[in-house]
């Protein structure tokens, strides 16, 4: 998922440089959502790992 976030970030940067503001904004928004989902899943995974380790 982090890979997709980075891809959308690169697309946003390239689109911004080329002057495609709408595409750049949409790609940046998608990259932000994917990044925060990645962080959420990472935290959930770490908590589950800690819970299983103590049981």
UniProtKB/TrEMBL annotation:
Signal peptide (residue range): none
Source domain of life is Bacteria
Q: Which UniProt keywords apply?
A: Cell membrane, Membrane, Transmembrane, Transmembrane helix
Mind telling me which residue stretches traverse the membrane in this protein?
6-26, 33-51
Hey, which family's this protein in? Belongs to the UPF0391 family.
Query: NCBIfam families from the entry?
Result: PRK13682.1-1, PRK13682.1-3, PRK13682.1-4
Protein known as: UPF0391 membrane protein B5J99_03345
């Amino acid at each position: 998922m982090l890979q997709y976030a980075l891809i959308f970030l690169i697309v946003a940067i390239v689109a911004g440089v080329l002057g495609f503001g709408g595409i750049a904004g949409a790609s940046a928004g998608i990259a932000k959502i994917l990044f925060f989902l990645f962080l959420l899943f990472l935290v959930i995974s770490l908590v589950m790992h800690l819970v299983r380790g103590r049981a």
